[in-house]
Specification:
Blueprint lengths: L1 H44 L37 H19 L5 H10 L4 H58 L24
Helix pairs in contact: 1-4, 2-4, 3-4
Length: 202
């Protein structure tokens, strides 16, 4: 009965190990697929960060503002290929210029004002600029979001592989212990002179 229970434990362990390792493989494939897809889409856009020289003299109201130094300058001159680059470009480059162009107002607010003043061509141009900027920004942030998904999926794959490996090792260990011969103890009768039978008295 004890050996039967041990066999069930080993079988269950192997089954869990196979499931975890298979899940790790699928998660790795998914992570690589999302990573390559996002990178390919970003590469096709041919977006480059401003050159290093542009960050030498940042000024408010110009292409490079002081707020861009800690976040955008690290990618100076590079082509946008990663989710981190997309997030920096969207939130710390495009967003700054969109806010300046719209005077701090959102696209919804500007669009409402433009509808109320249909003859205001300058406002209509501002609305179009803000709309294009926000559209590109949302696309880049979407790419950044999927890039993070690929990173999280990759971490989950590593965890699945690790747990699957530990489960497999544990199952092999239990199997090895179950195959060890059991030590049995036999009762050995005591040897020696037979005790004398007491004499009968008349």
């Amino acid at each position: 009965m004890r050996r039967y229970s041990s066999h069930l434990t080993v079988i269950a362990g192997f089954a869990v190990a196979v499931i975890l390792l298979a899940a790790g493989g699928l998660l790795t494939w998914g992570s690589a697929y999302v990573h390559n897809t996002v990178q390919g889409q970003l590469a096709s856009q041919q977006i480059f960060f401003p050159p290093k020289a542009a960050f030498a003299d940042p000024k408010a109201g110009t292409e490079i503002t002081p707020s861009m130094i800690p976040s955008v300058s690290q990618y100076a001159g590079e082509q946008m290929l990663t989710g981190q680059q997309a997030e920096a470009y969207a939130d710390h480059f495009i967003a700054v210029h969109v806010a300046e162009a719209g005077g701090g107002k959102t696209y919804s607010q500007l669009s409402t004002e433009s509808q109320a003043a249909p003859t205001n061509t300058k406002l209509a141009g501002t609305v179009a600029t803000v709309f294009k900027g926000e559209t590109l920004r949302s696309m880049l942030l979407n790419a950044y979001g999927w890039w993070k998904v690929s990173q999280i999926t990759y971490i989950a794959a590593l965890v699945a592989f690790g747990l699957g490996g530990l489960t497999l090792i544990g199952s092999v260990f239990v199997l090895a212990l179950g195959r060890r011969p059991e030590i049995t103890h036999e009762a050995i009768p005591a040897t020696g002179p037979t005790p004398a039978t007491p004499a009968k008295t008349a």
